[in-house]
Amino acid sequence: MLDTQSFDQLLIILAAALASAVIFRRLYVPSIVAFLVAGAVIGPSVLDWVSEPERFSFLAEFGVVFLLFALGLEFSVPKLLRLKGPVFGVGSAQVFLCMLIFGSSAYFWGVSLEAAFVIAGALALSSTAIVTKELSTLGEVHTDHGRLSIGVLLFQDLIAVVLLIVVPVLGASSGEDLASALGLALAKGLMLAALLLAVGRWLLPSVYREVAKSQSSEIFVLSTLVIVMVAAWVTHAAGLSMALGAFVTGMMLGECHYKHQIESDIRGFRDILLGLFFVTIGMSVDTSLLVQYAPRIIFFTLALIGLKALIIGGLIRLLGYPAKPAAQSGLILSEAGEFGLALLTIAVSYGLLPNEQASFIMIVAVLSMALSPFLIRHGHHVVARWLKPSKLEANDEPEFSSEEKLVLVGGYGRVGKAVVRLLQVQQVPYLVIERDPEVVAAARRKGIRITYGDCTELSILSTCGIESAQLALLSFDTIEHATEVIEHIRSADITTPLMIRLPDATGIEELIAVGANHLFPEMVEATISAVSNVSKLLSLDETLTTKVESELRSEGL
Fold first, then answer.
1. Taking the domain 393-555, which CATH number applies?
2. How far apart are CA 416 and CA 395, in angstroms?
3. DSSP 396
């Protein structure tokens, strides 16, 4: 039974988490940082409202399990194979170099070899939660720097699995039998991962099919919780981390048909546990170090961000990508991540790392994570100041004559391919601008006039001759980005007609006001097409149908 003091302190933890999340949200600081700060404030080193954080260590254990389960759900094997260049090329080199540099620095700092390995692994990884959320909010997931960043994060998730296997072994084995213990642990980890993946592929779909027939959200949520905890228990019973079982479970459920329902049903429960987990981590941080070693902490934070940005950006550039997405990806991934915090917590529990050293590294990691949204949101401005214009425009040279009256087609997706087919049949000169190098290579093999670049960058559009083009068809994910680009085009005295493709009709009036000539909201046009087809099939009055279509267009439905 929960005693009165424990209940009071649990209430304090929940209230502090809520207040901190509300305040930090207004400052556009990630909720992860808010929870960590809340824990540090109410913990023993500041207000001492919760004097014995270890009494709530079970919350941290459950939090680690569900943190890794959430990361596993986001892990995608098809996406991993599709982004194999950034994943295995940049990702592997980045993790190796960062761990080598950070591990060597920590070892010369005076920590043990095992502690240096843990610190290196924690700092080499970036924040999947912050990066994916910010890129989604900005509508930049499918940009060059978005795809490159996601690719590197996928490899980091793979390395996270290995670290989950290695760290408990480092804490439980002596130097003499370490090699054999690591080999045995890796073998057990691979066998258990294969077993869990097999169960997820052939058994769990049948289980969820039966659960879904009940049409009960409570049973669905409970089933997921039991499955996650059983997987965590299996890996723990084998002498490995519980988080490993949770991550593999998330991976296998992430590929099934019930993934989105699982995410939806468990989100509230998962977010509460994750919030409590980060609060408990914050309570274990010795904040007196922040005052005692403030200059050193600031230096290490800036060094962490600078080194990771240079390493990641440089590696991406070596793969042949333009300088701008390379530099932006470096800034996006320059912070530490939530998994690093979990790894440090696990290391402390196994006695691999003293709490004072772990607190110092955690403070550095949290500060880097707090700066991350700013770097992601304003990275293009930072990059523009760093790089010369010639480097920003270092894309493939477009294949066209400046005297041609081209139609510029932004993107070679479904709409782009249809427009190109029309222009080819009508023998209208065109040039496609595509930001996926693999799509560019495949299209060129088919004889398509296509160049690599981002059609939303004014420098690329100018290089491709937008000033003399007949028409420019540009695609955007958000109304804000479209407005910004159109304003730049019109402020440069470019009068070329602009046809803008957007997901929906939100903000059409604003786009027209800043200079868009034609608008193509895909959702609206798809709706109107359905209405038109229904009218034809039922032989309805064409005049009334046209009137309804006009109303739908004006309403943006």
1. 3.40.50.720
2. 20
3. P
Phi, psi of 166 (to 5 degrees): -75, -45
Q: Which of 348-357, 361-370, 384-393, 412-421 has the lowest mean pLDDT?
A: 384-393
Predicted local distance difference test score (pLDDT) of residue 333: 92
Q: What CA–CA distance (Å, rounded) separates 121 from 340?
A: 7
Q: DSSP characters for 108-121? A: HHT--HHHHHHHHH
Q: Cα separation of 485 and 503, whole Å?
A: 17
Q: State the pLDDT at residue 97.
A: 92
Measure CA of the first residue to CA of the last residue in the chain; give whole Å.
55
**CA atoms of 204 and 198, how far apart (whole Å):** 9
For the chain, the maximum distance between any two Cα atoms, rounded to a whole number of angstroms, is 87
Contact by Cβ (8 Å): 450, 432: yes
pLDDT bracket for residue 555 (50, 70, 90): low
| Alpha-carbon span 201 to 222, nearest angstrom | 20
Chain centroid, CA 116 distance in Å: 27
- By DSSP bridging, strand 518-521 and strand 498-502 are parallel
pLDDT bracket for residue 172 (50, 70, 90):
low
Task: List the chain domain ranges.
Answer: 60-389, 393-555
Q: What is the pLDDT of residue 364?
A: 92
Asked if 166 contacts 188 with a C-beta cutoff of 8 angstroms, the reply is: no
Other beta carbons within 10 Å of 181: 18
Q: Which of 46-50, 145-149, 174-178, 350-354 has the lowest mean pLDDT?
A: 174-178
Residue appearing with tokens 């084998």: 238
User: What single-letter DSSP state applies at residue 353?
Assistant: S
Task: Give the Cα separation of 444 and 461 in Å (integer).
Answer: 19
pLDDT at 259 over 80: no
Give the helix/strand (H/E) hosting 474: strand 471-475
Identify whether the C-beta of residue 496 lies closer than 8 Å to the C-beta of residue 466. yes
CATH topology of domain 60-389: Na+/H+ antiporter like fold (1.20.1530)
- List strand residue ranges (DSSP E) for 314-470, in order: 407-410, 430-434, 450-452
Query: Which tokens in the block code for residue 109?
Result: 């700092």
Residue type, 441: A
- Rounded CA gap, 260 and 95, in Å? 30
Give 93-119 pLDDT, tens digit per residue: 889 999 999 999 888 888 888 889 999
Residue-level pLDDT at 553: 61
What's the average model confidence in pLDDT over 444-464? Answer: 79
Provide the 8-state DSSP code for 547: H
pLDDT at 464 over 70: yes
> Closest by alpha carbon to 405, among 453, 465, 474?
465
pLDDT band at 307 (very low <50, low <70, confident <90, very high): very high
Tokens 């909201």 belong to residue: 521
Would you say 72 and 249 are in contact if contact means Cβ atoms under 8 Å apart?
Answer: yes
Exposed / middle / buried, residue 353 (Cβ in 10 Å: 0-12, 13-18, 19+): buried
The pLDDT, as a whole number, for residue 299 is: 93
Q: Which helix (H) or strand (E) holds 9?
A: helix 4-26
Amino acid letter for position 345: T
Cα separation, 238 vs 189, whole angstroms: 9
The percent of the chain in helix, strand and coil, each rounded to the nearest 5, is: 70, 5, 25
